[in-house]
Amino acid sequence: MKDALLLKFKQIPFNGYFELCKPKVVLLILFTALVGMLLSTQGSIPLDLFFFAMIGIGLGASSGAAINHVVDDHIDRLMERTHNRPLPQGSMDKKNALIFAIFLGIASMFILTVFVNQLTALLTFISLMGYAVVYTMFLKRATPQNIVIGGAAGATPPVLGWAAMTGEVNTEALLLFLIIFVWTPPHFWALAIKRKDEYAKANIPMLPVTHGIAFTKLQILLYTILLLAVSMMPFVVQMSGLIYLSGAISLGMGFLYYAYKLYFSVDNSDLAMKTFLYSIKYLSLLFAFLLVDHYARILFRLFIA
Asked: Which of 60, 153, 220, 298 has the fewest beta carbons under 10 Å from its own?
């Protein structure tokens, strides 16, 4: 029995397993977790702790992504964006995918518990369950506010990184969480406008399906304004300085420009996709500015000491 199962696993191309992990999403998760690690200390971080934390968090995120593939298989078959995934294409069956997801989850918890700390393991587990179970299995199908509530799971990576290095979660870590939490709705709703007909076909109550595109565009604009305000908070609480502030204002105004144009546009599909793509660049660059500002301030203090 075990030999037959092992043979079946070997017959599945590696890239199928790799795609189950949603590598592009996991890469962004790991980057924001890395920012949380680096911002948590004024000095260097222990390399062994960094290594195990990144592996453990990455495996946890990959486990959630793989479970999402399994649960959403029937939906993925109906949507143009996802119909080429391994399960809809038949290159892998649900049983193998689920076993793989469980293995990744167990490996993540083991590594984080043994080599990092119990708080990071617990928070990663809660995040995994929040995304794979609460959001994917229930919220996604229950309410058009699914991405608002479920976005909490996706906003945890910098908190996980912070907890991995310090063994605690403080106000500054929660500010990083808040930025991603507020960023998620306008980011995802822009894509939902582009894919409105596909979500309707799959009977998923995304906001453009239930409340219309005009209402969704208004929500994107309002959330973007809120995001601009929230992104100022690291400067307000003196977590960051002028380098970050200038970056946050510039990037925020760019996001607001896209949201404003989308709100008044007729060509919803094209501008919605441009807004979605900009939102990814926005988050990556915003967190990069946090890092640049952090180390610039450290160097400045060393210079004047």
From this structure: 298
> CA gyration radius for the chain?
20
Separation CA 111–CA 136 (nearest Å):
25
Q: Do 107 and 86 contact (CB within 8 A), yes or no? A: no
For the chain, what are the domain ranges? 1-168, 170-305
For residue 206, the one-letter residue type is: M
Half-sphere exposure of 20 (CA within 13 A, CB side): 35
Rounded to whole angstroms, the Cα distance separating 235 from 241 reads 6
- Judge if pTM exceeds 0.85: yes
- Tell me the fold of 1-168: Tetracycline Repressor; domain 2 (1.10.357)
Full DSSP string of 46-97: PHHHHHHHHHHHHHHHHHHHHHHHHHTHHHHTT-TTTTTSHHHHTSS-HHHH
For residue 2, give both structure tokens: 């075990």
CA–CA dist 76, 63 (Å, integer): 18
pLDDT of residue 12: 53
Task: Let me know if 233 is exposed, middle or buried by CB neighbors in 10 A (0-12, 13-18, 19+).
Answer: middle
> What are the Cα distances from residue 41, in Å, to 127, 161, 291?
23, 11, 11
In 3D space, the residue among 102, 112, 231 whose CA is nearest the CA of residue 160 turns out to be 112
The pLDDT tens digits for 62-103 are 999 999 999 888 887 877 777 778 888 777 888 888 999 999
